[in-house]
Design brief:
about 0% strand; rod-shaped
Length: about 100
């Protein structure tokens, strides 16, 4: 914004011309001007409620150690049936990949 304001003062071109050259919309530019000097704010609380806890990760690894011949998909459903952990097969895969 200071770039646009500085060069607007030096050249006499209007803001619309600079925003067109820079490839940003006029509304976006003015929303940036309005927010200038304010701290960046997140648009909401990050969605962390679905992340696996360390306890769940440990349970997956321990369960896999007892059932090494079982694939990750079947492992996910076996853990669900036995109330070990309620996680998706892709989460089981990621945890096992990370654990090595």
């Amino acid at each position: 914004m200071t770039f646009v304001q500085t060069w607007q003062n030096k050249t006499g071109y209007d803001v619309m011309q600079f925003t067109t050259w820079l490839g940003i919309g006029r509304n976006k530019y003015y929303s940036w001007v309005k927010r200038q000097g304010q701290e960046n704010q997140a648009k909401g609380v990050p969605a962390r409620y679905h992340w696996l806890t360390e306890t769940e990760k440990g349970a997956i690894i321990n369960y896999y150690a007892a059932h090494r011949q079982t694939g990750y998909r079947r492992l996910a459903y076996m853990m669900l049936d036995e109330n070990v952990a309620a996680v998706s097969p892709s989460s089981v895969y990621r945890v096992l990949q990370t654990a090595g």
